[in-house]
Amino acid sequence: MASPRSLVDKFCPLPSKRERRKEARPGELLAAALDLFVEKGFAATRSEEVAVRAGVSKGTLFLYFPSKEELFKAVVIENLGGRFTEWNAEFEAFEGTTPEMLRYCMNVWWERVGLTKASGLTKLMMSEGGNFPELAEFYREQVVRPGHDLLRRILQRGIDRGEFAPVDIDHAIYSVVAPMVFLMLWKHSAMVCVDGVSTLDPEKFIATQCDTVLHGLCVRPGSPA
Predict the structure, then answer these.
(1) What is the pTM of this model?
(2) 133-161 as b/e, with b when 16 or more CB fall inside 10 Å?
């Protein structure tokens, strides 16, 4: 009797090396494009460079992505915009307190985005978005608005549960966004926004920002001065 593995190989044979290479090309192109966009910026990156770095022809690149603009949009979706379904599902499943959720949110953002090359996309849009309004609007639609909506849900959850004081949520979300943007600028701007490259620990920075957002700077009654 044939083994289960042999039956799988018979009816679902592995693609040839050439076929596997073809299937892998979109992912390789997106990875190469992310590298170059973060390294050089959108305007300075040429499509030919992306193709060369991915090891394909320019014609192959345009087969998948008809223009550099479409390539950039695909990079944004792959690395940022497409992840909000996953993050909203985590919000729905979270069982801890809302302060714990906020800490989790900021730390997970650093692990999954801030530490990666994808964080350079935000810095890129801040520096070049004014020159490419269509891409800037696309970034707002796919990344900024879904991110703000998720933060609104987190803060509203805390208010509804009596864990947070009532606040102007539309403005309060920037108390969470601002530290994240600062870390991206610190990481992708030669770390010039701090006094020395070794004086900022991102994890400690996030923990401090969480404490400040949750508790403020003022001494609370009953706490040691």
Answers:
(1) 0.83
(2) eebbebbeebbbebbbebbeebbebbeee
